[in-house]
Specification:
Pfam families: DLH (PF01738). One of its GO terms (molecular function) is carboxymethylenebutenolidase activity. Keywords: Hydrolase. The chain has an eight-stranded mixed beta sheet, with helices on both faces. The mean pLDDT is 97. By secondary structure, it is of the alpha/beta class. α3 crosses α4. The chain contains six helices and eight strands.
């Protein structure tokens, strides 16, 4: 349904990604950020699904062509740890947001795992955004303080998550509330990465569909 494209970062460098356009010409945009596996077919599928829901969706390729197989967590960890999160967010993700906003459309940001952390960083450092939806990822405070978040956020977390733990989530929620920030936070009795239907060991269809409905409704409210 979608297509591979090249777009410009603010620094003038080229970045690549996967774009799926909505049927209508003046659709709002959503930037979709990968898990630590890379720009997988599953993430491209989510872009297609956003397009069917009425959004132009662009997933920038933060790993520049590298996609890690699901069983290889060591390689995924290595790729994630070698990623410059601030450059990825303030340049590649911001370039994607600028691409989607070029006709005056409002743009949101969403991401999963690594992409959830990038979504929170983007909510602080990417001025083109109007809303963000976070899936089971939180960055270190030095990358993005809750007090500095500039847009409404919705967040989805798993109770059986040993990476983005319930304790970490509670700390984030408390800091956002203390700073008077707009946050809708949902917890699911599911595993980390429960939205990923390609990973049967962790996929929870009921939780994933509930989260999807909430996310698209939130974006419609804030992006039009």
């Amino acid at each position: 349904m979608g297509t591979a494209i090249t777009f410009k970062r603010p620094d003038g460098k080229d970045a690549s990604g996967y774009l799926a356009n909505a049927a209508r010409g003046n659709a709002p945009g959503v930037v979709v950020i990968q898990e630590w596996w890379g720009l997988s077919d599953q993430i491209k599928g989510l872009c297609d699904r956003f397009a069917l829901a009425g959004f132009d969706a662009l997933a920038p390729d933060l790993y520049k062509g590298k996609v890690v197989p699901y069983h290889d967590t060591d390689s995924a960890n290595k790729e994630m740890n070698s990623l410059d999160f601030m450059d990825a967010t303030t340049q590649t993700v911001r370039g994607a947001a600028q691409y989607l906003s070029r006709n005056g459309a409002k743009v949101g940001l969403t991401g999963f795992c690594l992409g959830g952390a990038v979504t929170i960083i983007g909510s602080v450092h990417v001025p083109e955004l109007a809303a963000g939806v976070v899936f089971y990822g939180i960055p270190p405070e030095q990358a993005a303080k809750p007090a500095d978040v500039k847009i409404p956020l919705q967040a989805h977390f798993a109770n059986k998550d040993d990476w983005c733990t319930p304790e970490l989530v509670s700390g984030f929620e408390k800091a956002m509330k203390a700073a008077g920030k707009s946050l809708e936070l949902f917890r699911y009795d599911a595993e980390h990465a429960f939205v990923n239907e390609q990973r049967q060991a962790v996929h929870d269809r009921e939780a994933a569909e509930l989260a999807w409905g909430r996310a698209t409704e939130f974006f419609r409210k804030h992006l039009g």
